[in-house]
Amino acid sequence: MEPELAxxxxxxxxxxxxxxxxxxxxxxxxxxxxxxxxxxxxxxxxFLGQLIAEVTDATVDTHWWESTCDFIVKTAxxxxxxxxxxxxxxRKLQPILHQQLGPYDQVTLREITADTVFRICLLSDTLTExxxxxxxxxxxxxxxxxxxxxxxxxxxxxxxxxVGFMMIVDDPDKPEYFLWRLMIAEPFHGRGYGRQAIQCLxxxxxxxxxxxxxxxxxxxxxxxxxxxxxKQGFVSTGKIEDGELVLRMSLV
Length: 252
Ligand SMILES: CC(C)(COP(=O)(O)OP(=O)(O)OC[C@H]1O[C@@H](n2cnc3c(N)ncnc32)[C@H](O)[C@@H]1OP(=O)(O)O)[C@@H](O)C(=O)NCCC(=O)NCCS
Hints:
2 domains, alpha+beta, 252 residues, Aminopeptidase, binds coenzyme A, 7 strands
């Protein structure tokens, strides 16, 4: 382990069990990283450094550790038997971190910054089949936003943790606003973050000129978010556009 990381863990005011679990993870990453291609090897070390900073420094205000754990597990699982120690170390660490740093229950929509954009894009990599086919990767959404003057996009945060991405067509000349993209990273599914993000969005859209309804469209079939939208108050219009079912929510 890099001496600087070892010192951070040693000097931090943390429970002994957490220090041991962090050290085990750092040591398993030391074994894993040299087996990886240069890019992932650098990335896993950088993410580990971020994770240790999040745990040991209360002033760090963006927490990626759950996404980092997901990244380490997926990377380690790809290495088969030689990744098993890293997977086990993450599994041991996760519940301790949840207890130490969580819960992340307050959802907010925040601007994406130069510091966060890279990892906001990587949140898309957490989605697995079949859910990942229902939304474009965040990097593509941000590229499309660059060419659409009405695109309004935000990172979805739960507490200090960026957990997802949302983008709408925010055209003040039209009464209907369109939810263009929404995703919550898979490690965070089922915690109510998607529901809270829709509530934040509805509050925002209600402040926009002429807003009378919020539209969304989605693919159907296994993994479809249709039922999620219905639970949030969207109603099917019965219309299919570009192969997707259009739903609407009245804002008045
Ligand atoms: C759809 C998505 C945003 C939901 O986010 P989430 O944070 O997991 O959802 P929540 O935990 O807030 O769930 C709220 C409710 O919807 C339900 N729900 C969530 N996803 C669902 C799905 N795919 N199918 C059916 N119900 C779903 C939950 O069970 C929960 O029900 P409850 O209120 O009765 O307990 C997330 O699954 C996702 O990012 N999916 C992949 C991308 C995608 O489909 N985006 C939409 C593109 S149009």
